[in-house]
Design a protein that fits this description.
This protein is α/β, with parallel strands linked by helices. It folds into two domains: about 190 residues, Rossmann fold; about 80 residues, Alpha-Beta Plaits (2-Layer Sandwich). It has ten helices and twelve strands. It has a six-stranded mixed β-sheet with strand order 4-5-6-1-7-8, with helices on both faces. Strands 10-11-9-12 form a four-stranded antiparallel β-sheet, with helices on one face. Strands 2-3 form a two-stranded antiparallel sheet. A hairpin with a 2-residue loop joins strand 10 and strand 11. It is elongated, with a radius of gyration of 23 Å.
Length: about 280
């Protein structure tokens, strides 16, 4: 089952994020909402239109950028954009103001075939094609997967500008660090929504006191920390280990680690991030 009793709503002009790993159900949900897939049960509406009864009206008022690059690879940048504008009965000139900031970055290469573009340029072209008919709602399925860090940052800046023009945006991503860039997020796993709220409130709702533990031998540190009787959760996070304890007042961890030879081990209380909250929700 791809989705299990999913229920949520998105406000107009909101930047809403669906956060979760591969297989969480994000793409299936987007395909249902963009009328590309029929759900077995339940109902859904986009822009007050029913996804089954009013599918034609939905297709005219939404923009959709799938996770896999799906434009015509043998057409140039300009030809792809002209094609999608024509499909929706408009022109590049008519809606140029909406895509100007994005299109100007790839316009010098407008005669280059789409199949020869870099990941970041394909991303910008895909977004332009999804916007060329000035949609009310924009669906972006993992738009930053496989692109470099600079292109990811630029992309989110573009989304903020689009939101400022009155477009409602739903974006899915497996990157937990991108969750903080959304107004609200839904944490998803195995077809279910674990939590929906603003990133700040999800972090505030985490009841655990989180600690970061560091040592010169991180692999052995992780193994030994997991064997500590008072540990509740323990996982690697960059150059440190993030841990919670069964007893919030537990003070025996450092003595335990020293007894295991980790004389340079350091422990400090830290503020949890979205990824920490996500792991806690999975455990429960």
């Amino acid at each position: 089952m791809a989705l299990k009793d999913i229920s949520f709503s998105v406000e107009r002009n909101e930047l809403f994020g669906l956060i979760g790993p591969d297989g969480a159900g994000k793409t299936t949900l987007f395909r249902i909402l963009t009328t590309l897939l029929l759900a077995d049960e339940g109902s859904a509406s986009v822009n007050d239109f029913d996804v089954v009864k009013d599918y034609q009206r939905i297709r005219s008022c939404v923009g959709y950028m799938p996770g896999k690059f799906s434009l015509y690879q043998d057409l140039t940048i300009e030809e792809n954009l002209n094609f999608f504008a024509t499909v929706f009965g408009t022109t590049i000139k008519e809606n140029y103001d909406l895509i100007k900031d994005i299109y100007q970055q790839i316009e010098p290469f407008k005669d280059r075939r789409a199949g020869q573009l870099s990941g970041g340029m394909k991303q910008k072209l895909g977004l332009c094609c999804a916007l060329i008919h000035r949609p009310d709602v924009l669906f972006l399925d993992e738009p930053t997967t496989g692109v470099d860090v600079v292109s990811r940052r630029e992309f989110w800046e573009m989304l903020k500008r689009l939101k400022g023009q009155g477009i409602t945006i739903l974006v899915s991503t497996p990157y937990m660090d991108e969750a903080n860039l959304c107004d609200r997020i839904a944490l998803m796993q195995k077809g279910e929504i674990l939590s929906i709220d603003t990133p700040a409130k999800i972090i505030q709702s985490d009841p655990n006191r989180l600690y970061a533990i560091k040592s010169s031998n991180i692999f052995r540190l992780l193994k030994d920390a997991r064997s500590y009787p008072g540990i509740a959760s323990c996982f690697a996070f960059g150059d440190a280990i993030h841990a919670t304890f069964k007893d919030r007042s537990d003070t025996g961890m450092m003595d335990y680690l020293h007894s295991r030879g980790h004389m340079d081990a350091r422990l400090e209380a830290i503020t949890p991030g979205i990824e920490d909250c996500f792991i806690h929700l999975l455990k429960n």
